[in-house]
C-alpha cells in the first residue's frame, strides 16, 4: 500500500535545479532510508514532501490529496519532520519544547490537556530525556538536544515521521538507541519512518526500503539487497565497495571501499560474511 508519493517533482533554490523530475513511492508502515552524497538533494526532498519548502512543478500526494492544498493542522497530524539543523530553542525548557509537538491537537486558547501531558511524558521517556524535562535546552549537550528534538517529533503522534540525519551528534551507543527506537515504533505502532542517513550500514540495517539519489535524481530504489550493491554505490558515491553480510542481521553491509579516483572496475567484489575477513562474533 502506498499513501505517499511524488510525481515528476522539481525543486529549485533560486535558478539552481536541485531535484529533477523525481517520482518516488514511500511504502506505508515501513522504514525507508535515503542515501546519497552531500548536496545530492536528500534534505531538499524531505523538506518538499513535508511542505517546509515549495516545489516548482510536480506533485506530492498523501492519501489521494495534493499536500499543497491541505491545511497545516491536518498535515501536521499526519506527518512530522525532524530537520537536520532544528531551529534554536533558546529560553525553552525541554518539556516546553516537546510540548510544541502537541500543536496540531490544541484548540481555543491552546491549553494542554491531560492526554497532551501523557504523550509528552511518553516521548520523553522513550527517548531517555525525562530527567531533563525542566532543564533549559541550551544547557544540554549536542546529543541530548538531538534526542529532545526527536521527542518533540514523537509527541506529534503522526503516522509518518521524517528524520534528516537523526543520529547527528550522537555517539555509537546513542545512535543505536535512536534507530532501535524508530524501528520499535515502526514494528509496534505501524509508524512509517523515512530517514536520511549517511552511515550506509545503518541505512541498510534498519531499512525495509532504500532510495539512492545522485544529483537530484534517483539511481535506484528497492530493498536493501537491491540498493546496497557494488554498482549502485559506485555510481552514487564513486567508490569501489566490498559488500558482505552482517552476521547478526543478515543485511548487506559495506565492509570496506576505495575511492575510484578516475580508475574503473568491472568486477563486483562480495564476501559472504564480515566474519570471513577476520572478525569473530
Automatic annotation (TrEMBL):
<dbReference type="GO" id="GO:0005524">
    <property type="term" value="F:ATP binding"/>
</dbReference>
<dbReference type="GO" id="GO:0005886">
    <property type="term" value="C:plasma membrane"/>
</dbReference>
<dbReference type="InterPro" id="IPR051535">
    <property type="entry name" value="Siderophore_ABC-ATPase"/>
</dbReference>
<feature type="domain" description="ABC transporter">
    <location>
        <begin position="4"/>
        <end position="240"/>
    </location>
</feature>
<dbReference type="InterPro" id="IPR003439">
    <property type="entry name" value="ABC_transporter-like_ATP-bd"/>
</dbReference>
<keyword id="KW-0547">Nucleotide-binding</keyword>
<dbReference type="InterPro" id="IPR017871">
    <property type="entry name" value="ABC_transporter-like_CS"/>
</dbReference>
<dbReference type="InterPro" id="IPR027417">
    <property type="entry name" value="P-loop_NTPase"/>
</dbReference>
<keyword id="KW-0410">Iron transport</keyword>
<keyword id="KW-1003">Cell membrane</keyword>
<keyword id="KW-0408">Iron</keyword>
<keyword id="KW-0406">Ion transport</keyword>
<dbReference type="InterPro" id="IPR003593">
    <property type="entry name" value="AAA+_ATPase"/>
</dbReference>
<keyword id="KW-0472">Membrane</keyword>
<dbReference type="GO" id="GO:0016887">
    <property type="term" value="F:ATP hydrolysis activity"/>
</dbReference>
<keyword id="KW-0067">ATP-binding</keyword>
<dbReference type="GO" id="GO:0006826">
    <property type="term" value="P:iron ion transport"/>
</dbReference>
<protein>
    <submittedName>
        <fullName>Ferrichrome transport ATP-binding protein FhuC</fullName>
    </submittedName>
</protein>
<keyword id="KW-0813">Transport</keyword>
<dbReference type="Pfam" id="PF00005">
    <property type="entry name" value="ABC_tran"/>
</dbReference>
